[in-house]
Amino acid sequence: MITYGRLFVGGSWAEPSDPRLLDIASPHDRTVIGRAAQARPADIDRAVSAARESFEAGAWRLTPPAERIARLRRFNALREESAEEIARLISLETGSAGWFTRAGQAGLTRQANAYLKAAEDFAWEETLVPSDPASPLRSVVRREPVGVVAAVIPWNSPFSSATSKVIPALLAGNSVVLKVSPENSLSMGLLAELLERAGLPDGVISVLPADREVSEYLVSHAEVDKIAFTGSTRAGRRIASLAGERLKRVSLELGGKSAAIILPDADIEKAVAGVKFGSLLNNGESCIAQTRILAPRDRYEEVVAGLKELVESLKVGDPSDPDTFIGPMIRPDQQQRVRDYIRLGIEEGARLVTGGPQVPAGLERGNYVTPTVLADVDNSQRIAQEEIFGPVLVVIAYDDEDDAVRIANDSEYGLSGGIWSCDEEHALAVARRVRTGTVTVNGASVGFDGPFGGFKSSGIGREFGAVGLGTYTEYKTITL
Questions:
Q1: Annotated catalytic residue: which of 93, 183, 285, 287?
Q2: How high is the mean pLDDT of the chain?
Q3: What is the distance between the alpha carbons of residues 111 and 406, in angstroms, rounded to a whole number?
């Protein structure tokens, strides 16, 4: 049993305003695996006050960028040393398969290194060359921290979501209040311990698990200058409206319903194998999952048959089992939501290729669903338009390339997508036509040096690299 009875407020552990601890349940068998304190509005007030005081005092924002970089580099080294424990805790509390949480540790290193490199090369201050050579004026442009940042993250990939916000916000000199999901109280408790060991000044960082009502209290707080949020589009709209009332800076990484376009010349075997990781990663509980599979009509049944064979080959079960590829959903309500979408798809007329709404045999004690492939889907159907957030693939036929691009773009979302082709340059040309923030070609991984974020209802702003770092700064121009 893992217990976090205190809250990490302003860089130190403090007694919570509410002494009651929340039981953390295992998605695998619903047994209690830990207990943790949860933040209430009074704890948010303490954290925001500490952040404001530290920011105004300049304990961190006036520290030279090179020193901030060195401190965050130390944090990243500490995180690498704890990689196995991080992976274990995330699997334990979220149900993510061990292969995924372990593989994610290398991704965290690449993500952090990209931010650190961007900070080293960042134009923190520069003098502009006048456009008019005869002008006596000189302009000095500075990039300064925004202030107090409220970072709010979801439960499905907690460390990645946390560090994608905390690292650039701190590198830029901000003070940060990180609000995490109750389900992640254990892994985020470990994150707090690592941040404590990194040696940041008092008040600069807080890590608080809390429910949605407390999240709203935080983002509405008068002393918060910027909100960085990852989560559902519905919640993002609410946060944007609250931010607009006070003109808070805001960045939102929201939902997705991404398409994988398998072009007629693609190697079907390789494309289907790529779906395993591009569409079913993290149990399908991923905003970038490419869950709409677009196949050319004359090769449609070949794709469907390949997906059936793939999905039926995947082991579903205990996330700690090294052979498991797909684990349970995070909570019983999410399990029910996914099963209801499968039923809906069948009711809408989709062909059930494999899977179904039944719970896998022998796994009834946990939050499991049966990985499912639905074919003969029309892109107007709800299962093609709404984010299911589970291991459910819908296969849509297209007539020609223009039709494929039209279907891919016919979505309120625009976060990710994929193109499969034996002609990389042609795939690149098609990728340019897809209106999403990120497109991968032939299963390439999402990089961390370039910006990441969404078009349309998939968000506002970008993360990763120099662009992501810049979102935590304000421009100041000094004219002499």
A1: 287
A2: 97
A3: 32
User: Quick one: tokens of 244?
Assistant: 């607009």
Helix, strand or coil, per DSSP, at residue 349: coil
Phi and psi torsions of 193, nearest 5°: -60, -40
Predicted TM-score of the model (pTM): 0.96
* 302 tagged catalytic: no
3-state secondary structure (DSSP) of residue 133: coil
Please name which of 23, 120, 29 lies closest in space to residue 68, comparing C-alpha atoms. Answer: 120
Instruction: Please indicate, yes or no, whether residues 33 and 154 belong to a single structural domain of this protein.
Output: yes
Count of beta carbons in the 10 Å neighbourhood of residue 127:
11
Q: Which of 183, 253, 285, 463 is catalytic?
A: 253
Residues 217-250: tens digit of each pLDDT: 999 999 999 999 999 999 999 999 999 999 999 9
Shared domain for 364 and 433, answered yes or no, is yes
- 107 strand-pairing partners: none
Residue 381 sits in a domain whose CATH number is 3.40.309.10
Residue 126 has what pLDDT? 95
- d(Cα 80, Cα 106) in Å, to the nearest integer? 8
Residues of the domain holding 265: 259-448
Asked if residues 411 and 257 have their Cβ atoms less than 8 Å apart, the reply is yes
Model pLDDT for residues 151-182, shown as the tens digit of each residue: 999 999 999 999 999 999 999 999 999 999 99
Please determine, for residue 275, whether its predicted confidence score (pLDDT) is greater than 90: yes
Strand partners, 179: 152, 208
Are 22 and 162 contained in the same domain? yes
Quick one: tokens of 163?
């560090």
Number of domains making up the chain: 2
Encode pLDDT of 329-383 as tens digits: 999 999 999 999 999 999 999 999 999 999 999 999 999 999 999 999 999 999 9
Check which CATH number belongs to the domain holding 178 and give it: 3.40.605.10
Q: What is the DSSP string of 172-221?
A: TT-EEEEEE-GGGHHHHHHHHHHHHHHTPPTTSEEEEE--HHHHHHHHT-
The predicted-structure confidence for 293-310, as pLDDT tens digits, reads as follows 999 999 999 999 999 999
Q: Residue 135's pLDDT is what?
A: 83
Indicate if 465 and 429 belong to the same structural domain.
Answer: no
Q: What does the pLDDT read at residue 133?
A: 85
Euclidean distance between CA atoms 131 and 343, whole angstroms: 64
Regarding whether 228 and 272 lie in a shared domain, the answer is: no
Active site residue 53: no
